[in-house]
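[retry 2/3] DUF998 domain-containing protein: previous attempt timed out, resubmitting with same input.
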Amino acid sequence: MESLIQYAGIAASIWIVLGIYIASLFYPNYSHATQFCSELGALDSPTQKLSPAINNYPLGFLFILFGYYLVSTDSASIATIAIGSMIIIHGLCTWVCGFFPMDADPYTATPSTSCNIHSWSGAVMLLSFIIAPAIVLFSSSFPFALRTISFVCLIGSLFFSYTLSLAFKARTNPGLHQRLSYGSQIIWLFVFSIFEIS
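[retry 2/3] DUF998 domain-containing protein: success.
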């Protein structure tokens, strides 16, 4: 069983790409460039029920499963346990984001309670996958190659989070920048998972 659990991080990295793409096929005229990923599961969207069913809930499970694997490994260092904890938190918040959808219009002046919970949970998700690669970066217990990749992914995530805020204010293509920001984090998870099983 443990040999399967260790692949959960890789599975989650691939699943999220496929899940978002598949859900978007059932959302007429959905734009990956201008719309957020969460708009697939937004209130009253064509894929409100479908998106969390194939994205948030299974993804949250995979994140938590991989985080548990890292935390429960006998040889786990304090750094690895901390990273595993961040991945578990990421998984829990993925569930929360699925259960509490955002509003259909991301520019709503007075967001609903559900949207506010979704947004705060999303912020914790972002933070958890900033902290995790930062731990790798500043821990000498990890290989230099992994620390270098963690640095690149961390900078990518922070940079595209910044450009996302600019695109959102300008109402241009925030969806693209969100994908680049979160994509940097998912690439980090994928590479980290490979190092863990190699």
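[retry 2/3] DUF998 domain-containing protein: Residues 2-197 form one domain.
[retry 2/3] clearing retry counter.
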